[in-house]
Write a structure and sequence with these properties.
- The mean pLDDT is about 95.
- The chain is globular.
- The chain starts with a strand and ends in a 12-residue tail after the last helix.
- The protein has a five-stranded parallel beta sheet with strand order 2-3-1-4-5, sandwiched between helices.
- It has a single domain, classed as Rossmann fold (3-Layer(aba) Sandwich).
- The longest helix has 25 residues.
- It has ten helices and five strands.
- The structure holds adenosine-5'-diphosphate (ADP).
- The site of adenosine-5'-diphosphate (ADP) has 15 residues, from helix 1, helix 7 and helix 10.
Length: about 210
């Protein structure tokens, strides 16, 4: 299936873009959502995370303690690598299983850390970056989550830079501080139409060559 790797920094707007693409008929595989499911109470990653990090990493209700993990993973790259060593193989297996079942005009993998991980280039036909200036990212994430600007900036500094994302992009959807939702929707629609053509599907999902 023709596939897009959709990425962008925290608060760039990739979830909004992905929601529209799904409404218009793309199949969606969200790696963040998979990670949340794996780390929910009784999720597949909980037992190996408990072995790797001890009881402190697991909240009282049995899910990964995300605040604990965020604090330790950002402070210590070795912790981050150990976390990735547990999660990446489980995420890959879930992605492969879902891709085999996916139905739609084309397939969109939503991968927040696509540029950082380096494992995605070979897996997708095109990389699409939702592009945003850092100040707008901070403002959006503050409004959405209530995280402090310091925490948001720490998350952003552990992510790829705007420039390194743009360097690997085949398609760019600009969603900066001057972009309202209507403009974002229009830019997303233009990409959707182009990808439908490349996947030989019409924008309403019908196969052109069937
Ligand atoms: P990401 O998934 O990249 O972290 P989201 O799609 O969740 O980002 O967007 C972050 C927040 O900003 C959401 O609440 C979203 O509705 C809002 N948002 C995104 N783009 C715009 C925009 N152009 N105008 C207004 N609000 C926006």
């Amino acid at each position: 299936m023709f596939s897009i790797g959709l990425t962008g920094g925290i608060g760039s707007g990739k979830t909004q873009v992905a929601d529209w693409l799904a409404q218009w008929g793309a199949a969606l595989i969200d790696t963040d959502q998979i990670a949340h499911e794996l780390t929910a109470p009784a999720g597949e990653a909980i037992a190996p995370l408990r072995r790797a990090f001890g009881e402190a990493a697991i909240a009282a209700d049995g899910r990964l303690d995300r605040a604990w993990m965020r604090q330790h993973a950002f402070a210590d790259p070795a912790v981050r690598h150990r976390l990735e060593a547990v999660l990446h193989p489980l995420i890959d297996a879930a992605v492969t299983a879902r891709a085999a079942r996916a139905r739609g005009a084309y397939l969109v993998y939503v991968v927040p850390l696509l540029v950082e991980s380096g494992r995605w280039r070979a897996r997708v036909d095109r990389i699409c970056v939702v592009d945003c200036d850092p100040a707008t990212q901070v403002a959006r994430v503050r409004a959405r989550s209530g995280l402090t600007p310091e925490t948001i900036e720490r998350i952003m500094s552990a992510q790829a830079s705007r420039e390194s994302r743009l360097a690997v992009a085949d398609d760019v959807i600009l969603n900066d501080g001057a972009t309202d939702l209507a403009a974002l929707r229009g830019r997303t629609w233009a990409c959707h139409q182009a990808w439908c053509r490349q996947a030989s599907r019409s924008p309403d999902g019908r196969a052109i060559h069937d």
